[in-house]
What does this fold into?
Amino acid sequence: MSVRTMHTDDVRELLHKVAGFDQAEGQERVKQILHRVMHDLFQIVEDFDVTPEELWRAVYYVGELGQSGEAALVAPGLGIDRYLDIRMDAEDEQAGRDGGTPRTIEGPLYVAGAPLKDGYDRMDDGTDTQAETMILSGQVTDENGQPLPGAVVDIWHADSKGAYSYFDPSQSDYNLRRRIRTDSDGRYKVRSIIPSGYGCPPDGPTQKLLSLVGRHGQRPAHIHFFISRPGYKHLTTQINLSDDDYTYDDFAFATRGELVRDAVRIDDPETIRANGLEVPYKEVRFDVQLVATEDESLQTRHERPRAQEETNS
Ligand code: MBD
Ligand code: FE
It folds into this structure.
């Protein structure tokens, strides 16, 4: 059975009232967008002959998603975060402020207010005994290669099980989360552990939807960065490690070729000792180029709800 009702006065009047077009109060932008959203949803029901059973399943799915706290997790899986990056890249290009190290998505697992140190710090609390040691370092420069001292490099990543502190209450506060201020040469360096990739909770609503379209919910091993300095465009980015099965098959669409890095194993006893270590480790390098801008609104990260943002940042 396939009936067509979208063109009728009944549906038109219904949508008009749903969006509050007959009300003096409320916000015009919300009315316009809600009208479009509900119109297009009803049009989908008509075009695909969606059954009441299917539509109610979708309504209760939204409820399940909210209860699980996974709304900001299914978002990157549906390409929302990547789509916003594509738009911001295009805006930068149009405004002539493209270039520098590419952006990629923030993801839902940032926690504001990590310890802030000059030049160097250790990020791991030493309890992840299965993990390989990582030395991560790099130089922050402008587009001409001029070093930028005093830039803040805010780094966060998962443990050897793919879990993030704060969201995994078994980890210590701010484990694997640090802010490093670059030294007089624009350099930063941390000792940490090699992260593992992330997998969506297998029984959660995000994985449920992904499975319905034949997709996995895995991310490759990766390290997140916010890099900022007054006078330069804020950069939200990540590096993806090169030896992961999912390096080029990320459910969150965050991998960019320019952001893939090798973790190089260092076995040489002298180099190990020179770095103050006793065991072989893996070295990861990530140099960053920032783009100059006078526009202060571009010098900070965009707003979104973040853990500990008000209390501690
Ligand atoms: C992550 O660690 C992540 O970075 C993203 C984008 C989604 C889920 C988990
Ligand atoms: Fe992540």
